[in-house]
Please model this.
Amino acid sequence: MAKLTRRNFLAGSALVAAAGLAACNQGGGTAPADGGSEPAPEPEPAGDIFAAPDASAYPIDPDAEGTEALWTSEQTRDGWTRVTADGAPELGIQDASKIIQVNGLAFKDLNGNGKLDLYEDWRQPHDVRAAALAEMMSAEDAMLLMWHGGDEAFGGPGAAADPDAPAHALCIQGSRAGVSRLASDLDSYATDIAWINEVQAVCEDSAYGVPYLNSTDPYFIFGIPDPVALAATMDKDIWRKAGMWFARAWRATGVRCDLGPQVDVYSQPIGCRLSGSVCEDPAVNRDFVKYFGGGMQSTWADDEATEDLGWGKDSVAIMLKHYVGEGSVEGGRNDHSNPGAYNVFPGDNFNAHLIPFLDGGLNLESKTGQMAAIMSCYGIAFSEDEEYGENVGMGYNKKGLGILRNAGWDGMITTDWGIMNSQIYGVEKLTEAERYAKMVDATVDQYGGGFSPEIGKEAMQILVDKYGYSQEEMEARMKESARRVAKVMMDVDLFENPYSDRSAAKEILESPAAAAFGMEAAEKSVVMLKNKGNVLSAAGIEGKPKAYVSQRLVTGSFMDNFDPYFEMSINEEIAGQYFDVVTDNIGEPSGIYTPMFGEPDPTRTVYQKGDASLPSAEELKDVKYAIIGINAPKDPNEGVGGSGGMGMGMAQDPVEYLPITLQYRTYTADTAREVSIGGDLLEDGTRENRSYRGKSQTASNESDLDKVIALREALPEDAKLICIIEAKRPMVFSELEPYCDVILMIYNEFATSFTTAIANIVTCQAEPYGVLSLQQPKNMETVEAQLEDVPRDMECYVDSEGNTYDFCFGLNWSGVIDDERTKTYKAAPLTEPETPVIM
Model:
């Protein structure tokens, strides 16, 4: 086969399509050698053309002119060329002249040397190819792969993809991984695909043709809830299919790596980042990893996720986070800033927090076998005697990361974002280059959140000068990380086809099967805690009674920033079918727009919760049902527990450490720990005390409780009050429960509003299915008494019906749920992984 130019390749595509595969399938004809119409002579028959040659055979010369082509090509509407053949992976390329043919098969000549190199040969195992590529590289080439930045590519959460963004410049400099956070959906997918395809084209036109590993923070689509809500299903089939559908949507829109799922064992009930994780039980988190992670990394032949094809066209690599111990952060604070720097283990239960990673991530229910990557946590796994390694952030903790390596895992380790210059816990006195060198020595493969090759070069020399590496050992260490990074890229087919197709993406995003699954998952994630007098039952709602339905304020999040708006607490259309509805009165917007990152804009007014008020007494007088949606108690500082708010960097000085409350009314922490376990070393050699004993805190949404009480007082005596609680963490129910006849709880932050799923349950069209994945404490005193690292160690609330809001409790129409799910997970919490812990 003659080496093609882009012009004659595209000109000949139709002819190749007509002759090439027809010949392959039917045994006749050959592909023209130069794009003309005359067939070339038949070559001598070869052996098994799909057999991987011996490594010594490379580089391999392309076929002679006239060799039959067993592949076809077409130019897509997105501007790249698709190459296909029976038994071969799909290839995608911008510069068609880089397609070469060996034994009639098409390959990509990524380095442009006119030959087939081992790393370019898709017949070889991924680990072999990755090792071959890394070995070809210099240490500096390898170092360029050891960054996972990308923020410049999108301009901030929710921003539109910008083809002129600095990501292209970074790619020219060698950047090959980053997080886009574009949260692609039906409104944005076309622009997002155009952006990532442009990025991949820039990468294709480079020395080795290494593609771009585009990642995303978890975002939710098809109405599928987030993991903390899905945990309440305790349903492995739901978890697996959720992973599958997320992967299909993300892969179709250019994402090849999930910066998640977050599987921290949140045995700390006040933990402010609990809402992004799964739950407090090691076994549930382990199984969620196995099934959700397996669902995401495997490609499935059917919509029910029953036929596992392993790595394939729909696969997305998982990066489990946050390794390890964030679920036991002292004070419950946010580890993005210094007040949340310390993970503590007063119950000597560190090993339980390893279970999702060692027993889950290393043993996926998937042909892909193991997690592709992990993200280290910001926090210090603190111990005075450094039992868990040096008292530094986990991205620097060689002993802590060594547990994974000693278990035989050879995957990619990426740090959480910014630990080289922001979350520098325990390494404050080092330079940025020294910090980078320390990460590399700890077996980190990628720094998360930036791309600074000059610092990398300096760090390479530090490894030699200060860590005792020989020049050869340093070079081998850099190539080791390049190999691991390349292996992840190859697992998700980036070297074969890094491009995305708008038509295929649209088909997936519009999938009725995905939408139906999303509704099923949402319904099954709802937990019914109270159903006094069987208000909700199989009998359903009689007639069309008058019902009050509250308005809920919908606000944006990190991934979807928009102006707040009001909607009914249950789907308005369904509510109208079953009830004669009255609702809140909505006034003028009275709030000032304040972005998550930035200054308030006084010229832009937006709605806030107080802009909705109860109907008049006259409107409520004949109401039979009152359906009100509220939030569980919210911490005013969103978990940092100090001045300076959430803060993405170091805390402001001075810091006042405050309690995080799980109740609405003012809480004073009179029983809190008097001296904190963790704290920075002070100049006099003593350790800082971060205790909040005696300090007070009030929930920022105390008005939610006030509204429920006011509603109860305004309702007719026989009206049934149905309370829907959206929660991020456990709560103290004693203030709220006595006013409610029915309590429905959802753990939901980034997913759908659940209004339709809740409506189906309230109108008895769907039976409650979920069970508690988190204990609900009797009071704040039991919260203070529990040990941060020990799950399920609280005294739980008992309601007016005699039910205890403990782990795995939930109601359906028949009463307390008692099935195989609860029998499985009610067992005593695990404390040790089955995989040996070798430090």
About this structure: The CA atoms of residues 145 and 176 lie 6 Å apart. The first strand starts at residue 72 and ends at 75. DSSP finds 22 helices and 31 strands in the chain.
